[in-house]
Each structure stands twice: as structure tokens, then as C-alpha cells.
Amino acid sequence: TSDNLSDVCCKMSSPGPVGAHSDEDVICSLVQKSQEARNQAYCPYSNFRVGAAVLASDGAVFTGCNVENASYPAGLCAERTAISKAVSEGYTSFKAIAIASDLKDQFIFPCGVCRQFMREFGLEWNVYPTKSDGSYRQMTLKELLPHSFGPDDLSARYNH
Ligand SMILES: [Zn+2]
């Protein structure tokens, strides 16, 4: 079931051989990139660092961090930064996104706005919330945002 979440821990020190990446290697690499992006976070107001790394269908990876602003609502989450970077480079098909924070005992989950932002690009791709030690969970967008509103709903209006 969607609640049957297992914790998996990346062994950052032993990446697989180059050119022979297992799925787990790919995920761990994505988690590592999200942690590197977290280190770039601009968050002088919350001091809550977040990083994200999104994996496009062809293997390209785009990273992002949260970017806060003195006008608080103008700030941007890491996930939307990463996805916007990808879209602006021509990528709209994604396999996965990993999200990192400094939380040790808790997985970092995307906020509601980011779930909607991700959902624009499909429901069947994977989200990997992580803890600071690199352990992660796997969920689909559909699990994170059930009964969602998306592009198909807008086009459906023309069928009536
Ligand atoms: Zn967000």
C-alpha cells in the first residue's frame, strides 16, 4: 500500500561502477545531488536549508535550492527551483525528484504548492523524501497528491 514505506539508506561512500548503474545507484546519486544543492540554499530568514534534484527521462539532472526573499511570499522552494531550471532547458518529462534538508529524524516532504507544481508533469513519477543521513522513501506523485487537478482537467472542458 502507499503507507508501506520502507527506509532505504544510501551508502554514499560506495557508488557503483561507472556505466553500470543500478536503479539504487541512480537514486543515491540523485539524493547526493539534492544534498549538494541544499548546501547552496539561500535562507537567511528561516535558516531551513532545502535542496532538490530532479531526474529527467533521458538521465539529465537539474538541481535547486530554496531561495528566500525579504518579501517572504516571493521566496521559492527548492523543488520548484529545480523543476523550473529543467523546464527552461527544454525538459518536461521526469522520472524522479529527491529532496534534502538538514532534518535528521524526519523525512522532508514537498509542500502542497510544490506537489501541485510537480503534478503538472505527470502523476506516475517518483518523489524521494530524504533524511540528512541520506536515507530515503519512495512515493509517486499520485500518492502525494491524490484526486489532483491537472492539465487533463483543463482539456476535458472542450469535450462537452
Ligand atoms: Zn514547496
From TrEMBL:
Q: Which domain of life is it from?
A: Eukaryota
Q: Which SUPFAM superfamilies match?
A: Cytidine deaminase-like (SSF53927)
Annotated catalytic residues:
E79 (proton donor)
Q: Tell whether Hydrolase is among the UniProt keywords.
A: yes
Cite the CDD domains for this sequence. cytidine_deaminase
Could you say which enzyme class this protein belongs to? hydrolase
Cofactor(s) needed, names only, are: Zn(2+)
Keywords from UniProt, A to Z, are: Hydrolase, Metal-binding, Zinc
Under Gene Ontology molecular function, one entry of this record is:
cytidine deaminase activity
Which BP terms does GO give this entry? nucleobase-containing small molecule metabolic process; pyrimidine-containing compound metabolic process
Q: Which InterPro entries match?
A: APOBEC/CMP_deaminase_Zn-bd, CMP_dCMP_dom, Cyt/Deoxycyt_deaminase, Cyt_deam_tetra, Cytidine_deaminase-like
- Family that this chain belongs to: Belongs to the cytidine and deoxycytidylate deaminase family.
Name it: Cytidine deaminase
* Organism in which the protein naturally occurs: Sinocyclocheilus grahami (Dianchi golden-line fish)
